[in-house]
Write a structure and sequence with these properties.
By secondary structure, this protein is mainly α. It contains nine helices and two strands; from the N terminus they run E-H-H-H-H-H-H-H-H-E-H. The longest helix is centred in the middle third of the chain and has 24 residues, at 79-102.
Length: 227
């Protein structure tokens, strides 16, 4: 029999897994995923001058810009966009905490970095899969594709593909502009782009075989559906 998995718990666990997985990939230094790469490049540059500026801060700063662009593209502002920013802030704090804990692990051998990289991709895949069945507004990256698709009737897969490619191009452009070389965008970024969709699909299938998702706070769900 399948076990019950409350969607509210899936939301927080999914964000935590995303933060941990991203921290592992950052430690591996083989290249970030194309979704978070722009924020990572911004973090690398600003932290040179402001040491207190963290990857997590860069994440919710960049996501705030994404939400502004979303409002302009959709020609409207919805209250759920603010809650998406709250999600970004929570994720940012979890990411900084995960990176701080991971920094306590000694060693920088190639084998260890490979384990971090592969493990990070798998953990991120499960985090994204858990967020599929939640009603709480996701991070701006995911919300952008969903809202544009819903607003204009475009296929979400095509919107997501265009967004991912644009994000990768932006990361490359920022890297070359700010550093004169590639930073945070390496072969690992390309590999992640090729297998990430498959990994997320496998993770979602495994979770759906083991759990039945259920809303524990139906009134809260109705609130988010209205805004």
């Amino acid at each position: 029999m399948k076990r019950t998995f409350y969607t509210e718990a899936a939301y927080f666990i999914g964000l935590l897994l995303l933060a941990i997985g991203t921290a592992f990939m950052e430690r591996a230094a083989f290249g970030m995923s194309m979704i978070v790469a722009p924020a990572y490049v911004v973090y690398l540059k600003i932290s040179e001058y402001l040491p207190f500026f963290t990857f997590g801060m860069a994440e919710y700063a960049v996501q705030a810009v994404v939400l502004v662009l979303l409002s302009l593209c959709c020609r409207r502002f919805r209250l759920r966009y603010l809650f998406s920013f709250v999600t970004a802030v929570v994720y940012g704090f979890l990411l900084d905490g995960s990176m701080a804990l991971l920094a306590l692990i000694p060693g920088d051998h190639m084998a260890l970095r490979a384990v971090f990289y592969l493990g990070g991709m798998v953990i991120c895949a499960f985090g994204v899969a858990m967020l599929f069945d939640t009603y709480i507004p996701p991070e701006a990256y995911e919300l952008f594709s969903k809202e544009l698709s819903s607003r204009y009737g475009w296929k979400i897969s095509r919107v997501k593909t265009v967004y991912d490619c644009a994000s990768c191009a932006l990361a490359v452009g920022l890297s070359l502009l700010l550093f004169g070389r590639l930073e945070g965008v390496y072969w690992g970024t390309i590999f992640c782009a090729l297998v990430n969709g498959w990994l997320i699909g496998r993770a979602a299938a495994l979770l759906n075989r083991s759990f039945t998702y259920r809303d524990g706070l139906p009134k809260l769900k109705r609130f988010f559906e209205k805004i």
